[in-house]
């Protein structure tokens, strides 16, 4: 097998055909046409084509009906003439008289020709023979059955419609075979069809005009809600005002406006959260920055150019080594607190939905890893751990950060040689300590951003750790709660949806993250 030929075949198979290229070209051209113009043109074409097709169908139907009626009338007259010819022929043969001419009734704009199968034309009273029978007419006369219709254009431009019928033979008087040819001018019929054509054209033009008006009306009225929505979005982009727009009706455009209002509400709520976060962050950052500024100013005074070297004491500008070490430790502690606060602010400033793709997580493993990490930071505490497997779809790093914050909070409030109890059952993680507990007035607010009880303001921390726990729980479809532990300390709970077995978690779709 030739690899180059095979590659060329695959390239040819993957290449779009003329129809696909034409459709892509039309789609590209239509994408540059305004939506209002496209809707107007679509309605005009649809209505115009419908009216035109209806007018054409009516014209064809009426035209066929008129022509059929004309042929029927012509055939009836020819049959009557053929019966009269038969009678006159039989009468002449009965009396053995020569048949010199036929006496037949005449009709307006109608000529009658009587002939036999030998192409002999007879004389008809008051109707001179103007037409010669054709081969088809002679065959009708010879066979004695059938009819022959045809239209002939004369030298003066007149059109005539002809029909040939046979003359029935009487068995008692056998002889030559005759036929009757009846020719009638189509002038009146053509005039009627001409008027019908004019009326059809006028109706089609009127229909196209109505289609144009309907298209313009539909384009304006149908896209009016879209115009209002566009004006609202432009107003929001120009002014930043997130007030909802008025919604009218219950159709698809009303649903679009409702969704837009929901988006504006969510955006306004997000902006409010950002403003509140910035305000709270500014308030919380002010304290460590002020303390650091004070300490740095004191260090500058001590080690500045105005200080006397080698001197110590209140008026010397020098401090002892112990005071200097305490001052530097205080600055270092403030810097660490500021770093923790900045990290927590970065964590809370992320979007509500996790950025990483969810993956299978065993919450029990996450809890054990977090306990190992906190145990290294708090070696004086005991950890009573009882966890059961709990599988879910989520972000392991975010979940470990949340569990670590719960454990850090318990370690901070636990006394020396205290015990932190950790339980995980059916997706409910409970962390309790033996500290002073949480006051009843503070229980509803412990998971709020920057909330710190009066007792907690003297303790290190940013006031954002438990807020991060709540955000992680909501991102994974869970919830948080706070209560008093039986030992008198704080009891913090984190519940996450999932399954006790990995197989059940794999078969079930993960719950959508909370907005």
Automatic annotation (TrEMBL):
Membrane-spanning residues:
39-60, 196-218
Upper taxonomic classification of the species?
Bacteria, Bacillati, Actinomycetota, Actinomycetes, Catenulisporales
Give the protein's recorded name: histidine kinase
Q: Look up the EC number in the record and give it.
A: 2.7.13.3
Q: Which parts of the sequence belong to the HAMP domain?
A: 220-272
Pfam families per the UniProt record, alphabetical = HAMP, HATPase_c, HisKA
Task: Tell me the superkingdom of the source.
Answer: Bacteria
Q: Which reaction does it catalyse?
A: ATP + protein L-histidine = ADP + protein N-phospho-L-histidine
